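Margin note: ligand = beta-D-glucopyranose.
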Amino acid sequence: MSANGSTVATGSQRRFVRVAAAITATGGLLFGYDTGVISGALLFIREDFAPLSDFIQGVIVSFLLVGAVTGALAGGPLSDRFGRRPIVLLAAVIFAVGAIAAALTPNVGLLIVARFILGLGVGLASLIVPLYIAEIAPPGTRGALVSLNQLMITIGILLSYIVGVAFTPIEGWRWMFAVAVIPALILGIGMFLLPESPRWLVKNGKLDRARAVLSRSRVEAEVETEMQQMEELERIERQQAQVGYKELLAPWIRPALIIGIGLAVFQQITGINTVIYYAPTILEVVGFSAGGAIAATALGVGVVNVGFTILAVRIIDRAGRRLLLLIGLIGMTLSLALLGLVFSFESTSGAAGLLATVCLALYIASFAISLGPVFWLMISEIYPLNIRGSAMSVAALCNWGSNFIVALTFPVLLAALGGAGAFWLFAALGIVAWFFVWFLVPETKGRSLEEIEAAMRGTTVSTSRVG
Ligand code: BGC
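Resulting structure:
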């Protein structure tokens, strides 16, 4: 029974979590936008600050990833210590400062610093957004709500293409960076109005505040069950001497740690960012003309990514995480293998171009329903509350680290193996990823975070839940 006597959440209760998730996911939009914007901006930065060596251009691009690694490493422990909300606010401030600095930079040195600052925001947001949403979401819709983050990442990437095209006539690379201030303000002001995560509040003994936050989105029976589950686990956690990074070494955490790190690395080493950002180059090799057609295809990649992420959001709580991963990885692997085959023919015929386009679309669609959303979702679900932030940091760090290494080595890989070899290598890694998921990754749909944690600890918590 809820405060108004109902056993079904009211419209305003359902709306609260949705609005909270949507506001927080603006952090995902900034993640996507700031990682994507550089491909359009670089064309003009290169001219304004000419001469720019290839190396310096690489530094401008990759310093965002260096910042992201740093942000990911710091975000988790900071959020365990100070709360989730202050870290989202911190990310918003960093995004705004980074955007203004990049837009106003008088020289390349400061641009590199600005890219690092933006990267810090991206790294922080990449883990704190799913973490906060997972901790306020009810179990039955947690998958969809947390995956709003991935949806916003894909929308951010798409927007960065569109803004890039829009400012091209005036060569307005500074504007391309500057517009990111708007979502940063939305994130900051929105988060200012949202409450702290109820789970962090329970962990810090603020039970009344936690109950009040939960009551804004649940009927009373659900609030009571979740509070009871959290308090039961809190008692168990308090008996353990170790907290923070040391606890990460405890044997019972190891399986979850391996799952998070494995998914983090597989998300990157199966080639997603090389395909997204090299799509125009890939199509050029198989016979597309440069220019408009290529820009249109890049937009197409963005649209397919957004479209299939919407599908994932809609089905993830019914289909489950495992099934999506297993199906998506088959699609990714097959499309990569076929793409490699097209490349091996070294043909520039219309048929080769068409086949390559279909493969690219299938690959992106398959990623968008599997490793894209599910990685960030799962790492917000599988770790125990007392170390959730720190453990997510480790997974996010591995993701950004792998992203960096793939970006750095892809040109070398291409030179050594050729297009066909590179795609076949990604395909082979896709097969390894499939077996990893099949043998190690559990299903988490429909269970509360406390039920997932209790199962890992080999214990149980009360489960009388409504709805
Ligand atoms: C990945 C990013 C990738 C994006 C593409 C995210 O989940 O972490 O590396 O660029 O998906 O949609």
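The pocket of beta-D-glucopyranose is lined by residues 150, 153-154, 267, 272-273, 276, 305, 372, 376, 399, 403 (CB under 6 Å).
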